[in-house]
Every structure is written in structure tokens, then in C-alpha cells.
Amino acid sequence: MSPAARRVGWVESPLQLINAVEAATHLDETTLLLLRSGVAQLADTARWLEPHLPGGVELGDAASATDPRFRGAARRLVGDAFSGQFRAVVATTGVRDLVVVDDGSAALHLAAVLAGTEQFSRMGQREPLAQRTLGRVTGSRLRAASAAGRVTLFTAYASHRAMPVVPGASIVPNRYGWLRALDGGSPVALRPVVVLGSALAVDGYIATEDYEAWAAAHGPATYLPHRREDRASLERLRAAGLDVVEPGLPAEIVLGSARGLEEVRSLPSSTGATLARVLPVGAVLDVTAVPDAWWTDRADETFRATLTYLASAEDASTEED
After folding, report:
1. pLDDT band at 307; cut points 50, 70, 90
2. For the chain, which has fewer Cβ within 10 Å, the N-terminal or C-terminal residue?
3. CB-count exposure of residue 249 (10 Å: 0-12, 13-18, 19+)
4. How many CA atoms, within 13 angstroms, populate the side-chain half-sphere of residue 261?
């Protein structure tokens, strides 16, 4: 396939990178994935994955989504459709042929946007006027492209009970076949019980004190922090008896090949759809619903409802492949 015909992706996080490689593998497309430069964990993940990349998938760096390779591509892939940089590209060049991969639970919100039941905006955030203006243009163009059959959602939430019907779009299940086939071994030593860190507290959606008390109550256990957690919080969790391990890689990689793992405990997040597919045989994923008293004013009703779905739904992430 000529460079002009390959799909070009814009990736800003480690999870987006994993999902983009899964999409390229499943859809059998020659793909160039442009990684946002300056994101340390993304670069670390790319280095770990590079020896395992399937044929036809190439990685490159880019300062922004306006890079000519992405901006000029006729066939694109994006990990975060709500990204300000992606909005700017769509507003000036249109949608074209687009594959969207999961960026956590935002996949469900994007599907609702395409279905016309939600406005285009980043879930749980009050966006400034400039972003809302770009969002209206981007949302309108994405809905039109979806209706015309030019949008594919490659998602672990494909059969989730909260996934709406999206007119015209192709919804393709991500079953993590490529990642599950890797046998690189876990990059770190883990205890049998792992507590998966969440950004809900550091992002201001739940009370820090409640979150840290919940995490500490699971010790002795390994604690895998979310990449945005602050140092002071991690030190408090260490003092509470948790073994805080920072591998610099996504949980899907760290846990998927772990030996002796018995249980992973988390708050609602995309882990309900991803880790349920990649955990070793015999390991259990236990997702704790967020109590009402933990929420802050920043968490609006749409955000809370989505997280509630993720905690309670017995969805297709656990179905047989």
C-alpha cells in the first residue's frame, strides 16, 4: 500500500496507542501512528511495544495533530475525538474516513454524541467558549460523517448495554487479541492483590480523603498509580501500607502477563472493558461503585451516570470471543 493510501493515526496516551495497534491489526490496515511528543509514559510504552508490533504498523513522533502526515491523510485514526487539536483539524479539513479507538469510557460519550443524544464536549468538564465553538463544528461534521458511513468505532464497549445505536457508523469490537497473544512477561513484580489507581480524585471528581481511605483498605497489596496522581498522595498511600509500584506502562501491559495475580480492585473506569479481556486466567476484576457521598460538584449527572454504568453493567467485555 502506498504511503498516501495508508491510515494515519494521532495518539496522545498509552491506552490510545494499545487500542490503535489493536485496530490496525484487527482491521488489517497498513498504519502510521503518530505519537504526541513530550508524553513520557507514551514514549516508554512505545519503546516496550516496538519489538512486538505487527507487520504494517509503524510508529512516528509529531508535535501536534496539525502535522501534515495526519492533517493531509485521507484515512485517519484518532484516540481522543474530543482533543482540542483534533477538533482544529476536523474544523479545517473535515472528517474524511475515520477510525476512532477507545480513550477510556469517553467512547460511550462519543457514541451518544454521534447518536445525537449528547452535545459534543468532553465529558464531565465545563469547556471554555473557544472549545465549545470548535466542538459544535466538530460534532456536526462527525455526525454527518457517521450518517454517511465514514466513521468506525473500534471499541471494547461495542456490546455494552450503555452503547447507543449510532446511525451509519460501523461499531467493531476490540477483543485485545494482539495484546493477549504477547508473551513478554510482566515488567514488574506484583502482589496477588493489585489496587488500580484512579484519576477521579486528582481530577476533582471525588473527595481525595474518601479515595485514599478506599485504596488503603485493600492492603497489603500492590498499588498501580494512574499517571496523573500526585507525589503527596502516593506517599500517603505508601505510609498506609500499600506497595506503590510505578512501572511507567499501562495497566493492560503490566497486568496482562502477570504471574500469580489473583485479584484486581478498581473504581469504575475503562478497566471494566479492557482488563476483563486481558487479565490472566483465574484473576478476578472487582469494580467498586462510587458512593454518592464521594462525588464533588465537578462531577455532573452525565459523568456520574456513565461511571455508574461502568461499575454495574455485566457487559460484553466478559463475553466469549
Report:
1. confident
2. C
3. buried
4. 27
